[in-house]
Amino acid sequence: MSSASRASSTSSASGASSTSGGSSGPAVAVLGTGIMGSGMARSLLRAGLGVRVWNRTGAKARVLADDGATAFADAAEAVRGADVVLTALNDGPSVSAALEAAADGLHAGQLWLQTSTVGPDAALQLAHRADELGVVYYDSPVLGTKAPAEQGKLTVFVSGAPEGRERLTPVLDAIGQRTVWVSHEPGGASRLKLVANTWVINLVGAVAECLGLAEALQVDPRLFLDAVAGGPLDTGYLHAKAAALLTGDLTPSFALSTALKDTRLILEAAEQAGVRLDLTEASAERFARAEAAGHGAEDMIATYYAGRAEE
User: Fold this and answer.
1) Percent helix, strand and coil across the chain, each to the nearest 5
2) What is the pLDDT along the chain (311 residues), one digit of tens a residue?
3) Nearest CA to 264 among 286, 275, 280, 252?
4) How far apart are CA 50 and CA 239, in angstroms?
5) pTM
């Protein structure tokens, strides 16, 4: 993008951020309005920020208009004039594609909050592209699923230049209950996110296997849940994921196919670092079997079905 184009966009930015729906604070363009992006967009709106949304499937962005967002069919128009661009997409290639689609609307000095889990390598590649486009990149993967995104209770890991912290604070406060500043350089937050996701992925596998064994041994799974309730082995996550299975409501708060993608990112990073992760390798195999059996769009606890002999 030429410097002249950036200058033109900068001029339009000041007008848009001051008039976007009469809001105070930075105007935010959210690219990607799936489970996480739509939740964050609604949290931003509740905080009184002006929100512009775009999604490759336009209908997913347009539903947010009822909540007060301005939906755009064109990514470049969505980001033009925004103070902060927030990406919430599935993986590195989809983030990169969205950035290129938006490139003509970006302006120099614009802040880019990249919340997708893309892995350390892709985080650095995106940082390089941000430098080329003149935007200020923040590697900012979030810890949490659908409900925390909708409630503004995510934990946000951030790596990036400290100079932009004050400008980002209203956005980070709107989407998260906690911000962890990891480092000044991109990649640090993405590395921490892989560590955190390793815990979550193996925990959900443990829940699935315990309930699967209970079923096989004709043990009422509620007896197991009651046995650990309130003790040191108890977790809210155990009860939440068990409830999803016991009620049969596998509406995704975090889709199994996305969990498989993240697991592969973890294993790739571990291999590069010379670490063997046996539990995570097993989790990846279970996710892959469950996905092959048709459970990819369901919640990640559907890894439970990978333990059934017929699947």
Assistant:
1) 60, 15, 25
2) 333 333 333 333 333 343 344 567 899 999 999 999 999 999 999 999 999 999 999 999 999 999 999 999 999 999 999 999 999 999 999 999 999 999 999 999 999 999 999 999 999 999 999 999 999 999 999 999 999 999 999 999 999 999 999 999 999 999 999 999 999 999 999 999 999 999 999 999 999 999 999 999 999 999 999 999 999 999 999 999 999 999 999 999 999 999 999 999 999 999 999 999 999 999 999 999 999 999 999 999 999 999 986 54
3) 280
4) 37
5) 0.89
